[in-house]
Amino acid sequence: MTLVLHGGHGKSIFVTRDSIRLVQEHQAERHDKGLPIRHIAAVDVKKPGAFDGYIHFSIAGGRPHESAFTLTGGAFDAARDDNAVTFSTLEDYDTALKIKLLVESWQPPAAGAVADEIAKLQALLDAGTLTADEFAAAKRRTLGA
After folding, report:
1. How far is residue 131 CA from its own chain's centroid?
2. Where are the domains of the chain?
């Protein structure tokens, strides 16, 4: 399952099983930042109202996010923060809440499940179903690297 939130300022969030990708497209530039879910310490979601709402991801050891409703915090700072996306609709707010729930309920796969998945990938490689590059990419995703 992939969740997608296209927010303001050309920023989007793409959520897969184990990672968050924050993409910002501005003029001819594209910035793509990946965050493994296991590194996310907290998710802050603010409902849009008089100002845009936002979703912000805090990383362990990172700079804390000021979520107070002031001109120096909240949506104003979220618009400039690499780990945040602003939005203005209630539909986007619902998507942000789903992303928050997914991140907060994430559990690392059991060690045996990881080994089983890699063995399945190896069998697909041996059978010629996967290329060496596809195998390496799938193995990295399975290991959460």
Report:
1. 27
2. 3-104, 111-143
* 98-102 long-range Cβ contacts below 8 angstroms, 24+ apart: 98/3, 99/3, 99/5, 99/13, 99/15, 99/20, 99/43, 99/55, 100/43, 100/45, 100/55, 102/3, 102/15, 102/37
Q: Does pTM top 0.70 for this prediction?
A: no
Q: Write the single-letter amino acid at 29.
A: E
Inform me whether the pLDDT recorded for 124 exceeds 80: yes
Residues in the chain: 145
DSSP β-ladder status, 19-26 and 53-59: unpaired
Say which CATH class 3-104 falls into.
mainly beta
**DSSP string of 55-86?**
EEEEETTSPPP--SSSTTSTHHHHHH-TTEEE
- The amino acid that residue 37 corresponds to is I
CB neighbour class for 21 (10 Å; exposed up to 12, middle 13-18, buried from 19): middle
Type of residue numbered 145: A
If one counts every other C-beta atom within 10 angstroms of the C-beta of residue 17, the result is 12
CA distance 72 to 39: 26
Q: What is the mean pLDDT of residues 34-48?
A: 91
